[in-house]
Design brief:
Blueprint: H1 4-10, H2 17-23, H3 35-56, H4 62-73, H5 75-85, H6 95-99, H7 106-124, H8 126-142, H9 153-163, E1 170-177, E2 184-191, E3 196-202, H10 205-223, E4 242-247
Antiparallel strand pairs: 1-2, 2-3, 3-4
Helix pairs in contact: 2-7, 3-4, 3-7, 3-8, 5-7, 7-8, 9-10
Amino acid sequence: MRLDRLEQRIQYQFVQPALLEQAVTHRSHSAQHNERLEFLGDSVLNFVVAALLFSRFPQINEGDLSRLRANLVKQATLADIAQQLGLSDFLRLGEGELKSGGFRRPSILADALEAVFGAVYLDGGFTAAQAVIDQQFTALVAQIDPKALGKDPKTLLQELLQGQRLSLPVYRVLATHGAAHDQIFDVACTIEALSIQVQASGHSRRVAEQAAALQAIELVNQKMPLRGKGRMSRRREVAGTVISSTVSKD
């Protein structure tokens, strides 16, 4: 397997390529799998992200920093990053996992990404691992609204509407495009009470829904500019999405 393309994407060249090969090997493929590397990478990732948050938000307390970190290193976020890197193209899976679509399963993608971080740490040391992780997370950290305390756009939209005693938004998949390992999902988010409908696209249904919710927050704020209690600022923290929005006429 040629892994030089993956090295280019993470901007790190391995001295010991076998470590990267092990990092993308699922336990269904062979006994030399990535679970120990994933354990190591998880620890390195948590430390590096904690350091990024500590530096970026000097006024935030320990509890809120922990919540922000948890949101950044959770499985869904890691799987999204893995998809953006095209990590599924390099996974080594057993026959059963291949047939069941394991290359797009969030848990497998997230674990493999952490294993890659662990492999970089073993190959090049902490500084190298920190650089690779920073590359993927610095932009996400920079886009965080500390007032939201790590809440994702769907949660923020739900709280915003509940605060105004409005019905919750409805999400539906409009279409999917592309090959099975590289699909694009088109999703609509509708808020009937405000005659709002937005559309967004992403490499997973979750990413598309989060991007749609982000657009909806802005439109809700525009329609209710004087109801300051529920107003939320727009946050561009959903990376790798194509976003468009429409508003129905009142």
